Amino acid sequence: MVKVSQETLAALDRASGKLASAALASMDEQFAWFGRMPADQRASVQLIAQTGAAGFVAYLRDQGDAIRLTADAFRQAPRDLSRWISLRQTVELVRVAVHVIEREVPDLAADEDERQVLTEAVLRYGREVAFTSAMSYASAAETRGAWDARLEASVVDAIVRGDAEESLLSRAAALGWDLDEPATVLVGNSPSDDPPTVVYEVRSRAARANRPVLLGVQGSRLVVVLAGDTDDPRVLDKMATSFGDGPVVAGPTVVNIADAHRSSVEALSGLRAVVAWPSAPRPVRSMDLLPERALAGDPEAEWQLIDQIARPLEVAGGALLETVETYLEVGGVLETCARLLFVHPNTVRYRLRKATEITGHNANLPRDALVLRIALAVGRLSRSRGLW
């Protein structure tokens, strides 16, 4: 333990104010940004310097109490000080203050032996202050991180619920989200019951894909809002690996986060219906689950099947619609279809190619044939109810 005379301790007590003033003057001289700080924040730094200088004397009396003494200096400063100066800038200020104390304090020693003791004590005390400042910033970062996590969860929850657009946008902007960036909602099972693990898994994969994300764990369900276009299927493939076992459904990519509720509605509808397609890819787009969603009673899926398939085929002409219906009814046997329609098989081939161009679905493929069959059935039901 450091031993100095009571005479030296008294001299240090009297000089603590002078040391703090000298440290502030040196900070002002060396750092232009320090002079531009608001008056209240400069006063906070002055408070830390004064408390730190006074704490040095207490430190000499009891090194075991050093951590509490140095922490007190930062605890008395306003919480928002860390928003004005970075950790790097704080370390620079600590370095200057320690240099001033190291320069001035030895002259207050009663003799040469105490001079050496004080020099070494200043270095140790400076180390304690540096560690405490780092801990102060780490604590502030942890607090902000917890606040951001709660805010992020509320934004994702608002997207799922379809809350008021303005409040959603303001909260998303507070998290640094680009409000003009396209957004896609993915839903699936959470990979873990431990939220920090889930956050790490999702963010690490999003970072590798160079995409911002928002995420929320809702019970056993994980909801991820992914920024940017998703034309490249590899992006969704990477993000799907951060989900737990089971299907992962991606909603449509919308123009910005204000429309993300629509993407979440379709993704959640797809997640409820995907059980009807056991061999569905992972991830699967909600638009690729239109038949299953329609069977599950999703009116939006029914409307899309009519708008994208049934109505375009009808508008294209009765012969085209009749050919597709007949081809599906005979199980895709070309010759039988041609015979029932009293046309040449090449005519059937031509009409099927036209139907593929119009709808994007090829009646010769089993999955596409199912989509066409369900779409035409939904169209007939809608027409019978006078809805189309």
Radius of gyration: 35 Å
Number of helices: 17
The secondary-structure class comes to alpha+beta
Poorly predicted runs of 5 or more residues: none
Give the overall shape.
rod-shaped
Describe the structure.
By secondary structure, the protein is α+β, with helices and mostly antiparallel strands. It folds into three domains: 6-143, no CATH class; 181-295, Alpha-Beta Plaits (2-Layer Sandwich); 299-384, PucR C-terminal helix-turn-helix domain (Arc Repressor Mutant, subunit A, Orthogonal Bundle), CATH 1.10.10.2840. Helix content is 66%, strand content 6%. It is built from 17 helices and five strands. The chain has helices at residues 6-30, 32-35, 39-61, 66-75, 81-84, 87-104, 112-161, 165-174, 195-208, 233-240, 260-273, 290-295, 299-316, 318-329, 334-341, 345-359, 366-384, and strands at 183-189, 213-218, 221-227, 249-250, 284-285. Helix 11 (260-273) links the parallel strand 4 and strand 5 (284-285). The termini are far apart.
Write the layout of secondary structure elements.
Elements: H1 6-30, H2 32-35, H3 39-61, H4 66-75, H5 81-84, H6 87-104, H7 112-161, H8 165-174, E1 183-189, H9 195-208, E2 213-218, E3 221-227, H10 233-240, E4 249-250, H11 260-273, E5 284-285, H12 290-295, H13 299-316, H14 318-329, H15 334-341, H16 345-359, H17 366-384
Parallel strand pairs: 4-5
Antiparallel strand pairs: 1-3, 1-4, 2-3
Helix pairs in contact: 1-3, 1-6, 3-4, 3-7, 4-7, 6-7, 7-11, 13-14, 13-17, 14-16, 15-16
Organism: Actinophytocola algeriensis
Keywords: DNA-binding
Domain CdaR GGDEF-like: 162-273
